[in-house]
């Protein structure tokens, strides 16, 4: 686990993953896409102008806690403004997050990740600045999803490090930390 490094000659951020690590990233990105696409994100309205302009996004906070965290309510004090803001922006935000996760999958597969990852195979990923930003955003979304599902909060690191290794939450928390490590090294390599 080496993380990302900047290659001076090419200017690219580069990381080498084992096939298992690359497949895990692909799986996490795929799960994020599925979550973003499964909950109904649009509600048709009767307004012909809105239908023409496609302002048909949802007007209420998502029921799934992860989606509620990824798409928080913008105006806590003004329910109508919050509803309008969500209707005009959430569908586009969902598409952007899903596209970023799909870009992670595409980059991994273009770098050689097959459908059946093999032991001893390494995947070299090279990202230009635009791709690095996309990956950073996707890492943020993946980490928020895991943190929400596990109930991770600021200052509770000791709790997570004290969990026995056989506790499945400990393993998922290790993935959360690994994503944080990857994101940190990618940020440093882009600086």
Tell me about this structure.
The protein has seven helices and three strands. By secondary structure, the chain is mainly alpha-helical. It has a domain at 5-39 and 97-190. It has a three-stranded antiparallel beta sheet with strand order 1-2-3. Strand 1 and strand 2 (12-18) form a beta hairpin. The longest helix has 32 residues, at 79-110. The radius of gyration is 19 Å and the shape is globular. The model is unreliable at 41-45 (pLDDT under 50).
Secondary structure layout:
Blueprint: E1 5-7, E2 12-18, H1 19-38, H2 48-53, H3 65-70, H4 79-110, E3 122-127, H5 129-150, H6 157-162, H7 168-190
Helix pairs in contact: 1-4, 4-5, 5-7
Pfam family, one: DUF2017
InterPro entries: AosR (IPR018561)
Strand elements, count: 3
* H/E element order: EEHHHHEHHH
Mean pLDDT: 88
What is the distance, rounded to the nearest whole angstrom, between the alpha carbons of the first and last residues? 20 Å
Number of helices: 7
Strand content: 5-15%
Strand order in the largest sheet = 1-2-3
Return Rg in Å. Answer: 19 Å
> What gross morphology would you assign?
globular
Q: Which stretches are low in confidence, meaning pLDDT under 50 for 5 or more residues running?
A: 41-45
Class from helix and strand fractions = mainly alpha
Q: Helical residue percent? A: 55-70%
Major sheet: 3 strands, antiparallel
Question: Can you describe this structure in just a few lines?
Answer:
This protein has 191 residues and is mainly alpha-helical. The protein has helices at residues 19-38, 48-53, 65-70, 79-110, 129-150, 157-162, 168-190, and strands spanning 5-7, 12-18, 122-127.
């Amino acid at each position: 686990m080496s993380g990302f490094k900047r290659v001076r000659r090419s200017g690219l951020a580069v990381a080498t993953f084992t096939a298992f690590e690359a497949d895990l990233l692909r799986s996490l990105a795929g799960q994020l896409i599925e979550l973003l696409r499964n909950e109904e994100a649009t509600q048709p309205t009767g307004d012909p102008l809105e239908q023409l302009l496609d302002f048909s996004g949802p007007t209420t906070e998502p029921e799934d806690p992860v989606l509620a965290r990824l798409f928080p309510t913008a105006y806590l004090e003004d329910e109508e403004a919050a509803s309008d803001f969500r209707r005009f922006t959430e569908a586009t935000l969902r598409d952007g997050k899903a596209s970023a996760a799909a870009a992670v999958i595409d980059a991994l597969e273009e770098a050689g990740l097959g459908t059946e990852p093999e032991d001893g195979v390494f995947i070299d990923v090279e990202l230009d600045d635009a791709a690095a930003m996309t990956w950073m955003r996707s890492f943020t979304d993946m980490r928020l999803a895991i943190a929400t599902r596990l109930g991770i909060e600021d200052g509770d690191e000791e709790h997570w490090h004290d969990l026995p290794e056989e506790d499945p939450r400990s393993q998922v928390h290790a993935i959360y930390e690994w994503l944080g490590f990857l994101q940190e090294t990618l940020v440093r390599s882009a600086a």
